[in-house]
Specification:
With about 100 residues, this protein is mostly helical. The protein has a domain of about 35 residues. The protein has 4 helices and no strands. The longest helix has 27 residues.
């Protein structure tokens, strides 16, 4: 096995050392096990978000079916992104007073 040196926050080191003592295994083994489990934990976290908002997907009625694909088109058609001064440019002083 190769050796890898990393710098960890004191709190994390304390956690790892505590886990090492509880399980009666080396600190290195605790770190290796945590690194092995990291992809599984990350996948569980990312799928958990979808579960949290899953009931909201498709819950708004009356919107176009292709809204996510054509959002710029719909925003422009609603007037978003247009200059509110009717095409006139205002000086900075006039813009601040509005």
């Amino acid at each position: 096995m190769k050796t890898l040196t990393v710098r960890l926050p004191e709190k994390l080191i304390a956690e790892i050392e505590h886990e090492s003592q509880l399980c009666r295994i080396s600190v290195s083994e605790v770190v290796r096990e945590r690194l092995r489990r990291a992809p599984e934990i990350q996948q569980a976290k990312s799928s958990g978000v979808l579960e949290l908002i899953g009931d909201l997907i498709g819950s708004v009625e009356g919107l176009p079916a292709d809204l996510s694909e054509r959002k710029k088109h719909y925003l422009r058609s609603m007037g978003y992104g247009r200059n509110r001064t009717g095409g006139r440019r205002l000086s900075r002083r006039a813009a601040k007073s509005q």
